[in-house]
Amino acid sequence: MEEINPSVKDILDALYEWAPAELALSWDNPGQTIGDPGRQVKKICCALDISLSTIDFAKTQGAQLLVTHHPILISPIKSVLEDAVVGKRIIESISGGISIISLHTNLDAAKDGVNDLLSELFDVKGPAPVEDSDGANILRIGQLDPPRRLDQLLAEVKEKLGCQAVFYTGKQDQVVSRLAICGGSGGSYWQLAKENGADCLLTGEVRHHDALDARDAGFSIVGAGHFETELPIVKRMAEFLNEKAAGNNWDIEVYTFSSEASPIEIFY
Ligand SMILES: [Zn+2]
Question: How many domains, the chain?
Fold first, then answer.
């Protein structure tokens, strides 16, 4: 059977089978935001963020499409100017002939998305979605199997996610058996996690006041970094697209931006 080149819209439809747009939070902006939906795709680059270096990587690969987790546009903008941060990214993408698709909080909530993948990575068995007050199902809670001490979990998180440092609140000798998981900025979910029977929350970013309140409530939070907790999904995105390509006879090449780095560095 002859191989075909899908359009950007074909790729978006396939990605929505995995992470339907309806799963996204109300303020979010998943989907295609840049380019021509009808454009034929031969090469796709997958990345976490849309930075100038991501766009540059996509251009170097000769890609027509960039698939990312974080969207390029969330807040409305009133101009697209070369000397503004977002404006320059938009201009660089369009001038490079690169369309952009992002799967954001819909992929956090999706089955086998960001948080199911983290659950799998840390041996959390039967991760169940927990609905928040906005009706979103981003948080997961499951059984850490086998249960382990917080200090062991911290070491494991640091190693598996390649973190330079891991922030936490709680007692290192506490045994964690029900672990809540939320990649990215999930620190404010600690209370919901506690109410639903978790004894620790693994997330990316934790704000001071959430840590302060959690400590007084005897609840542990592990903050492994926004970038670090979400990066594993990029490889999964590429795997998903390759599976779809095989199933649909698509003639595409999929790359991941392997040298993508967190914008936050640590000075020791
Ligand atoms: Zn994020």
Answer: 2
